[in-house]
Design brief:
Blueprint (H helix, E strand, L loop, with lengths): L17 E3 L14 E3 L19 H11 L4 H28 L30 H7 L5 H16 L8 H17 L1 H6 L6 H13 L4 H9 L3 H21 L17 E2 L2 E9 L17 E9 L4 H12 L6 E5 L3 E4 L14 E2 L8 E2 L20 E6 L7 E9 L20 E7 L1 H4 L7 E9 L4 E2 L5
Antiparallel strand pairs: 1-2, 3-14, 4-5, 4-13, 5-12, 6-7, 6-13, 7-11, 8-9, 10-11, 10-12
Helix pairs in contact: 4-5, 4-9, 5-8, 7-9, 8-9
Pfam family, one: CYP38_PsbQ-like
Organism: Tripterygium wilfordii (Thunder God vine)
Protein name: Peptidyl-prolyl cis-trans isomerase CYP37 chloroplastic
């Protein structure tokens, strides 16, 4: 997304892979280069990453003729073998280049850092659901994070087709159990005193409950992938609840210049009621009836984007989005620009980089250099603020959008080409199926805060 998202949005980028191989036309002609081109990004469409492979056929023939080392008896056989090799070389080169993200032009290229190819790496472990991204964003106890990471690895192991590594899965669960048992006091000590009782109940459930780690271990031993998937989801939900108890507020101090801005010191839930602008209905869910209005719920994360989330939640409380019209493109659902509404604050671009302690302000991330946000845009139903009409260093005071992530319009690593450029502050957790049915002209009849009012801080009103 090279331009700011404002009242108009352009979100289209189709990466390409071009492969061309041309045969020899004469015995004196070299094999033409085999080229693979990858557009770098939207702003650099003219730049391509090229791979060139040269033929060795002529050099081999010249060497043979120069030294006369093969008798005539074997020349016919050798020419036949060489012609076969001529057809094999392009196939081998194509296979080798498609198998490796690195060029084969020289040994220096092997020194390229893998982080620079992050857009094209199929192994990039970016959250693919809002629930996973939100769970990872909670600033919880390091022991709980270790348990969470060990369990989340199982979700990747479950994707392996046919023979799944159940032994490795079992080892992951046992590792999580050991951490939970050995670090029990540390885990419970991180929970505020008024939440200790609930924390102990969740800890007990995680250890021995119906959806806990022991139950997950039994599912793995039964080698039933469906049961493992369900048990894993249940265990991770309990982990997330424990994490939230340990993170009652912000874990960092805001920059002094932003202390007078509204802020959200935790999580909040906002519910939108959407109506069709043309009087039609939303398609029913399985076994349901057509609906004139549909409901969408969004979890807003103040842990990673306190200023952006705070401004948004304050606007919801003030009723700013009631009757707001929606505009749609193939990759986003954008609210109107709010010129006739009460404006919010001109919030700086706010992005928490993965592995960092606090957000960056007025700074986009360089995904090409391996920087990734804690709250990625590359998730269907991500919610983010549009750019200010005057500067990409600031978000629009009022205008937000739902991102309709589509892997067909992303890099080979599954990252959006707009990753790291917008202030993402939450995800759609209920009603994701509704997003695809929203059309330009549909209306937000109401937006209300259903949870998190106590975490909204408005300094000028306190």
């Amino acid at each position: 997304m090279a331009v700011a998202l404002s009242s108009t949005i352009i979100l289209s980028c189709n990466p390409s892979l071009n492969v061309s191989v041309s045969p020899l036309t004469s015995t004196r002609q070299q094999l033409p280069s085999t080229g693979f081109t990858f557009p770098l990004n939207r702003r650099q469409r003219s730049g391509h990453f090229g791979i060139r492979c040269l033929s060795i056929k002529n050099r081999t023939k010249d060497l043979i003729c120069r030294h006369d080392i093969f008798p005539n008896l074997f020349s016919a056989t050798f020419r036949h073998a060489l012609s076969k090799l001529e057809t094999l070389i392009p196939m081998i080169l194509i296979f080798s280049q498609l198998s490796s993200p690195l060029p084969s032009g020289g040994w220096d290229n092997w020194l390229i850092s893998p982080a620079k190819a992050v857009l094209y790496s199929p192994d990039t472990k970016v959250p693919r659901t809002g629930e996973l991204a939100l769970r990872r964003a909670i600033p919880a106890n390091t022991n709980m994070k270790a348990i969470q990471a060990s369990l989340e690895d199982i979700s990747y192991l479950l994707r392996i087709p046919q023979r799944k590594p159940y032994g490795t899965m079992e080892g992951n669960v046992k590792k999580a159990l050991k951490i939970a048992m050995d670090e029990k006091d540390s885990i419970l000590a991180s929970i505020p005193s008024d939440l200790k009782e609930k924390g102990y109940e969740l800890y007990t459930s995680l250890m021995d409950g119906k959806g806990g780690l022991q139950a997950l271990l039994r599912c793995i031993k039964d080698q039933d992938p469906d049961k493992v998937s369900v048990g894993l989801a249940s265990s991770l939900d309990t982990v997330a609840e424990l994490d939230l108890l340990q993170a009652p507020g912000l874990s960092f101090l805001l920059p002094e210049q932003y202390l007078n801005y509204p802020r959200l010191t935790g999580r909040a839930t906002v519910e939108f009621t959407i109506e069709k602008g043309d009087g039609s209905t939303f398609s029913p869910a399985a076994g349901g009836e057509p609906r004139k209005a549909a409901t969408i719920q969004v979890v807003v994360d103040g842990y990673s984007a306190p200023l952006t989330a705070g401004n948004f939640v304050k606007l919801v409380v003030d009723g700013a989005y009631n009757e707001a019209k929606l505009n749609c493109t193939n990759q986003a659902i954008l609210t109107d620009n709010g010129l006739d509404k009460n404006h919010g604050y001109s919030v700086p671009l706010e992005i928490m980089p993965s592995g960092q302690f606090e957000p960056l302000y007025r700074t986009m991330l360089s995904v090409q250099d391996g920087e990734l946000p804690v709250l990625p845009l590359s998730v269907y139903g991500a919610i983010a603020m549009a750019h200010s009409e005057t500067s990409e260093e600031y978000s629009a005071p009022y205008q937000f959008f739902f991102y309709l992530y589509d892997k067909r319009n992303a890099g080979l690593g599954g990252l959006s080409f707009d990753e790291g450029q917008f202030s993402v502050f939450g995800y759609t957790t209920v009603g994701r199926d509704i997003l695809s049915q929203i059309k330009t002209g549909d209306v937000i009849k109401s937006a209300k805060l259903v949870d998190g009012q106590d975490r909204l801080v408005v300094p000028n009103e306190s």
